[in-house]
Amino acid sequence: MANSLSGDSVVDRVVRVISAFPEGSGSLQLSELATRSGLPLTTAHRLVRQLAAHGLLETGGGGTVRLGLRLWELVNRNSPTLALRQAAMPFMEDIQQVLNQNVNLAVLDGWEALFVERLSRRGSVANRAQIAGRMPVHVSSAGLALMAHQSKAVQGEYLAQFVDPDGKVTAETVRTLLAETAHTGFAQLAGVVDPDTWGIAVPVIDSRQHTVAALGVVVPLHEVRLQALVPALQTAARGVARRLRDSAP
Fold it and tell me: Is 66 in the same domain as 92?
């Protein structure tokens, strides 16, 4: 039920407050939080106080506000990606041991790849993918691997609304990339996000033949060995799917 002049419900405003924290931000001033959430300062102050009482937010000196540990606890305890991350971690660690480069795990959320896990080491190449970060499908090898193995209806809906904000990629180009990915069984993008890196990803397909995730690596452009990388990733993806199947109730 809406109970504000703007028509927002309490839940709407709580979500706006929690979502206002930008990626990588430790804390915000209350005034900045109100501005970012589009709420009056008095409303933001009241919601922050109530959420802090439940441990979902924490307040500090000078009017600072940060996300609370209770929120982290609840999300991680009940996250639908928890089983996926647990199943994938041993295989991601094995791949990282061999490559000494970035390894990513992503799921499809709307028209974006949402990264739920990432392993990297000092000396690894630049990797824009961050845990809980998002990337558009068409600029991420993980995104292409995920979308290429969705139904024709989902792909059609995605392509029908596709617009590249930079104006560099057309829907037909993406359609071709998806077809190539579906045919080869893996996605690859060279120098798209970073000119010196190559992203390679494969789908994780469960026992019902649903693509539940994408397992990928980001490696230096000059070190790409597809004939070795792709089979290793595909073997790991099958291992993840097997562990998911074995752990299912």
Answer: no
